[in-house]
Specification:
heterodimer; A: alpha+beta; Naphthalene 1,2-dioxygenase Alpha Subunit, Chain A, domain 1; seven-stranded antiparallel sheet; two-stranded antiparallel ribbon; 11 strands; B: mainly alpha; about 50% helix; flat; binds fe (ii) ion
């Protein structure tokens, strides 16, 4: 493998094998200049890189309670990346995580898009105090009777697929290996797991959605969201359904991101000293609890 | 490719189709953002009665086989997804309680690392 910067060549063990113009260097010991070791592991089809060459916990241990069933479902090779967005935001990275792990905000924040399709009270949360890397999850269910506006376009799209989170599809999703992962509750939509610290993984039938945030500074972050589906779009009905789902989630996300930047502005003003977190937002509590233990360096999950 | 479903007559809404049949989601988004509510409603309500028939007609082809006027029609149909919230929920071309959608940069792949 060759470094694109100066053309240093490393062998498959990471040892430095060749250096163009080696004689230009003085005291030079190639045996001490191999690649730095990192740990790499695979779960659910995703490659996880840990900069610690000898981690104290394995990835599998870190991701409990996500068991082998999740590994199998998400690792199914049929999943392919479909689309995604990236952006830079004027908000602390944690505010973007917060927005994705509680349902309490949906009725108000999303009053101009999806309110009624997933009411806040249909988004129960669970905390996993024993887990090192998965502090909490939130689940989403449809109400028996959806209120809010289900437009003609949304209903037409629902005949051809199920990519919109907010419209009940007329078809079944296709996604294999979901046993032990997918709820068989007829109104279940998705479970969203917080992978500590900065990944929120939405698991559905036939769709995976990954949101990641990275801090730039205390008041700025990079955010990205990626969608995965099983199989290519083949006919126009599927494309229409995909377009509808993609635009709906885009518009909903613009509301979450708007709120996050507004909260940051309030924090910047220095007036807000504390916030109230309720029972429905237990995943946020679990997130900050885990975060504080990590910041203190105790490594404790409780 | 056999055509079991006949092409709907869209001659009376050709003007609207020509205005909104833009190739990408992003272009249709910009079109919606830069349109007045009158323009958006004119397009939406012209297309809506024929949309079920248009989707059924287009759906009988593989996507790769959509070319020419059918490709154009498919893009206008997709624009109906773009204007849907504006017509029924916001009653305005742009959502007032969201960030500018154009700030969400379309990714080229999971590992897209273009500097923002
Ligand atoms: Fe939200």
């Amino acid at each position: 493998m060759t470094c694109d910067f100066h053309g240093w060549v490393f062998d498959s063990e990471g040892q430095l094998a060749d250096v163009p113009g080696e004689e230009l260097f003085g005291d030079f010991d190639k045996s001490k200049l191999g690649l730095k070791k990192v740990s790499v592991d695979v779960w659910g089809g995703f490659i996880f890189i840990n900069l610690d060459p000898e981690p104290s916990v394995s990835l599998k241990e870190y991701l409990k309670p996500l068991n082998d069933s999740y590994d199998k479902y998400l690792g199914n090779k049929d999943w392919t990346w479909s689309y995604g967005w990236r952006a830079k935001f004027n908000a602390n990275w944690k505010l973007l995580v917060d927005a994705q792990i509680e349902g309490y905000h949906v009725d108000q924040t999303h009053r101009n898009t999806i309110a009624g399709a997933i009411p806040g009270s249909y988004a129960p949360a669970d905390a996993y105090p024993e887990s090192i890397g998965v502090p909490a999850r939130v689940c989403a269910y449809r109400p028996e009777e959806m209120t809010g506006v289900q437009t003609d376009v949304a209903l037409l799209s629902a005949k051809h697929g199920a990519t919109s989170l907010y419209t009940k599809s007329e078809n079944e999703f296709t996604a294999k290996d979901g046993e032990g992962v997918l709820s068989d509750h007829p109104l279940w939509i998705f479970d969203a797991y917080l992978l500590f610290p900065n990944v929120v993984l939405f698991i559905q039938k036939g769709q995976i959605l990954v949101q990641r945030t990275l801090p730039i500074s205390p008041s700025e972050c990079l955010w990205e969201v990626d969608f995965f589906h099983t199989g290519e779009l083949e006919d126009f009905g599927q494309l229409f359904n995909s377009e509808q789902g993609r635009i709906q989630i885009r518009d909903v996300l613009t509301e979450d991101l708007y709120t996050a930047e507004g909260i940051q502005m309030n924090f910047n003003a220095g007036v807000i000293k504390e916030i109230q977190i309720n029972k429905q937002e237990i995943a946020i509590r679990a997130f900050y609890h885990r975060l504080m233990s990590a910041v203190k360096g105790t490594g404790e999950s409780k | 490719m056999s055509q079991a479903i006949a092409r709907p007559d869209i001659s009376d809404i050709e003007v609207e189709i020509n205005l909104w049949a833009l190739p990408t989601t992003e272009e249709r988004l910009v079109k919606r953002m830069n349109s007045t509510m009158e323009e958006i409603n004119a397009f939406h309500y012209a297309m809506l009665p024929k949309l079920p028939a248009i989707i059924d007609y287009l759906n009988q082809f593989q996507l790769a086989d959509l070319v020419g006027d059918d490709l154009k029609l498919s893009r206008a149909a997709l624009a109906m997804c773009e204007v849907d919230n504006a017509v029924y929920k916001w009653k305005a071309p742009v959502l007032g309680t969201g960030i500018d959608s154009l700030r969400m940069i379309k990714k080229s792949g999971f590992s897209d690392r273009v500097i923002l």
